[in-house]
């Protein structure tokens, strides 16, 4: 099961990176197009979709790897016992918030599908299609936070703390 979760987080990270490559290629196509006198239809729309996808798909991977910004100056001053309690409280709040965001994103996709919403660019795109990656990223983040919360509740060290500690030792 742990391997399956790690593969899922890795896949989200790779897809996030792929979206950044897509943005780069779209911008490059626009630059070349201007030099040769043609336009790339709806490039701004597709770049915006890829940016949202990249952001949300990268959340779970970044969280798991300890890459999110935390106030470690305060956290490191706690003793081991109070720090575990503080981590459990923060992860509980984070879990509630991430579940709400995942629900809201899924509901947004559902509404876009039901109401047949499309983009306004040259190329009309059903909005639920690019929004789906946002919802998947939000769900992956909620699962990653749940996984860390479950580890903290069981008295284990969440994986993001292990990665944070490894990163701080390298510096």
UniProtKB/TrEMBL annotation:
Major subcellular location class: membrane
Coiled coil: none
Gene Ontology MF terms: transmembrane transporter activity
Domain Tripartite ATP-independent periplasmic transporters DctQ component, residue spans: 23-154
Transmembrane segments: 12-40, 46-63, 88-110, 122-146
InterPro entries named in the record: DctQ, TRAP_DctQ
GO CC list: plasma membrane
GO biological process: C4-dicarboxylate transport
UniProt keyword list: Cell inner membrane, Cell membrane, Membrane, Transmembrane, Transmembrane helix, Transport
Membrane topology: Multi-pass membrane protein
Superkingdom classification of source: Bacteria
Record's subcellular location: Cell inner membrane
Pfam family, one: DctQ
Record function comment: Part of the tripartite ATP-independent periplasmic (TRAP) transport system.
Family that this chain belongs to: Belongs to the TRAP transporter small permease family.
Assembly: The complex comprises the extracytoplasmic solute receptor protein and the two transmembrane proteins.
Protein name: TRAP transporter small permease protein
Organism per entry: Neptunomonas phycophila
Top-level taxonomy: Bacteria, Pseudomonadati, Pseudomonadota, Gammaproteobacteria, Oceanospirillales
